[in-house]
Amino acid sequence: MIRSISLILAIGLSLSVTETYEQVSENGYVLAFLLFAIPLIATIVVLLSKHTAARISIAVTVILFSWLIALLGMSWLYHVRLVTGDLILVDEIVAVLPPIIFLVALWWFTSPIGNKISWVLHRLRFDVLMLLLIVLFILGIQEVEESTGDFGFVWLAILLLFYALAPLYFLTILPTSRIKEGAVKNAITQVASNAGIKKPNIYILHTHYKILNALAYGLLFQRKFVLFSDKLLRDLTQSEVVAVARHEFAHHKFMHTTFLWLTFVCVMLWVFYFTEVAGVELHFLALKSTKWICAIIAFVLVSRQFEKQADTYAVVDFARTSGSDIVTEDAANSMAKALQAIAFLNGHSPQRRDYLHGSISKRQQYLRSLVGSPLLKIPINTRVRFIKIGILSLLVLRFIV
What we know:
The chain has about 400 residues and is mainly alpha-helical. It is about 70% helix and about 5% strand.
């Protein structure tokens, strides 16, 4: 569910706050051209032409990369701080406003539905706020840490706050409603029960039928949420929805969300430790960039294994409920066909790469390779078990050394 627009905004902002500003550009005209003139021209060109998806995407790309050049190449954040001072989060928010303003204008004038306000809010929630607010939260915590010098207390606070507020955050920032009673809800509830989730929180994610996806969220001891997009529930068959539900509840059964968060924290703690031992100061751009890059790489690598285990569980649960103790061809095809439908309805090639899940075609190939495997002896489960042990061991070791 991470969207490219929010990822670019988040990465750009994260890198800019680490700049030392040893060489600052004082050319205000170039800054104005990058931040306002180029985005305005890109927006006008789209408005004066046919509003095709390709042209809108090009305009969005121009707006974002023009901002990135101003931010990282022309020290835009430094110029903002000359006016606002280095107040916690105020300067960062002001620095990210120009591209957001032009994106809002672009989405307003190219809205594919009559209710322009609803469409703009939809795009803001999914394409900007969902990830950007989390990054701003982390940057704010880092600024407090730098001002107090108390690394341990501040990161303990961020963990506790994230743990407490995350479910409320996702339900607030995303347009959701509880799924209505009926055959589909009953089938999904049964899948949850099979996975050991007794009181699942099943929600519809309203996307104006533009997004076909599902997501699971809920850390250790929290309520377990699964969100199915309106397009997914409308366009997939009930058996395909059940296959997707099996995948999503597998994330809860195996505590994937909790361990992904622990992976991120673990890497950040160890990179901080090694740089401290090496005597390297953390304010250098390259060093802080390395910390984030290492965390993202670890997140992606671990997520790939968790997604494979979730696919596997979807097949295993189908076989088990059918009374088999091995993976049957029907069981493998149940999830493979659901993946095929998702790719087709999203207009994506099965070979299209996904950095968190892998391509649909490779996932299907893997699922069909499981046919005949005993349900209790599938290698991915052992591999994930060792990954979890490794994550926990590294966390414990970090607090010992």
